[in-house]
Recover the amino acids of this structure.
């Protein structure tokens, strides 16, 4: 009897050991946790991050990232003239294998080779703010500068009698954005039977615009208004006009914080506002769609709006909120 009992115990121990060996310990069991999908990574490279305009583009881009669940990186050199620095930043984003790129090119001719590198790496590229003749872009998101220029010309036409003469200050010779704004204004002036006294380049610079405007005044050219293709030039022109005690309407372009302050103070008549926040948002949204293989519109016009004394306070509130500080 004892012998039978001993055999039974041994048999049970053996079975127990076999079961333990087959099952293994709970600690050694492999875990199959659900992998969290990576966020779509969008690299945004702007012309610079040292101005309020580009900070507004950045704000819009990051808003899109938060709302759409994207990993958005916004970078740019310290100056719009640092073309080499911007190209290096684009190359770095390509090396990091982002899912899509949003680019505001500082110098189109220099940018095309690096954009072709992105194409070779199968990284879709959306252009924001500045369009360039590059067929491989997914989309251009920004202001239709010609229509913005027409807005400025039509605004002046409402304030001036037919036959009035207008001075136009343009940007760097060959700058596509500035040239297109000027051409839009010229067409509107012609359609409204206004004349153009002169078109002078002032390199988008306040100090140069001051000098150019002083020279125009000293040359005794007659004019009843001024259009400047950006606000920096408009503000420079105002200084020259004030010094000469000349009071004529001046219209700028961009609705920068300095320009809005000048409008509120009664120095600048108006400025054509671009929607920089909308540009940033829609360009990132378009890049996301491209990265997912979804269709994207080839051109997305973010629109313009003329800002004057009637709506300047609303614009100031909008920009102050986006920048996180009062711009007054």
């Amino acid at each position: 009897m004892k012998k039978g009992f001993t055999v039974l115990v041994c048999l049970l121990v053996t079975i127990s050991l076999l079961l333990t060996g087959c099952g293994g310990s709970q600690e050694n069991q492999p875990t199959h946790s659900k992998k969290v999908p990576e966020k779509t990574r969008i690299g945004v490279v702007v012309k610079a991050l040292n101005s309020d305009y580009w900070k507004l583009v950045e704000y819009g881009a990051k808003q899109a990232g938060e709302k759409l669940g994207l990993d958005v990186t916004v970078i740019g050199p310290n100056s719009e003239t640092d073309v080499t620095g911007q190209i290096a930043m684009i190359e770095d984003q390509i090396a990091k294998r982002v899912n899509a790129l949003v680019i505001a090119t500082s110098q189109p001719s220099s940018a095309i080779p690096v954009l072709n590198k992105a194409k070779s790496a199968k990284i879709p590229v959306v252009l924001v703010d500045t369009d360039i003749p590059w067929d491989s872009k997914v989309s251009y998101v920004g202001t239709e500068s010609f229509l913005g220029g027409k807005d400025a010309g039509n605004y002046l036409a409402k304030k001036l009698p037919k036959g009035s003469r207008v001075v136009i200050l343009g940007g760097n010779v060959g700058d596509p954005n500035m040239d297109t704004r000027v051409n839009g204004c010229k067409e509107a002036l012609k359609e409204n039977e206004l004349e153009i006294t002169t078109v002078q380049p002032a390199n988008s610079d306040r100090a140069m615009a001051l000098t150019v405007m002083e020279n125009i005044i000293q040359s005794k050219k007659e004019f009843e208004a001024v259009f400047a293709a950006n606000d920096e030039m408009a503000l420079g022109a105002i200084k020259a006009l004030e010094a000469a005690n000349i009071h004529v309407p001046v219209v700028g372009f961009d609705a920068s914080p300095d320009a809005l302050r000048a409008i509120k103070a009664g120095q600048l008549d108006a400025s054509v506002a671009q929607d920089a926040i909308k540009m940033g948002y829609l360009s990132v949204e378009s890049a996301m769609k491209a990265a997912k293989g979804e269709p994207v519109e080839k051109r997305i016009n973010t629109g313009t709006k003329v800002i004057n004394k009637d709506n300047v306070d609303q614009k100031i509130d909008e920009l102050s909120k986006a920048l996180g500080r009062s711009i007054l």
The chain has eleven helices and twelve strands.
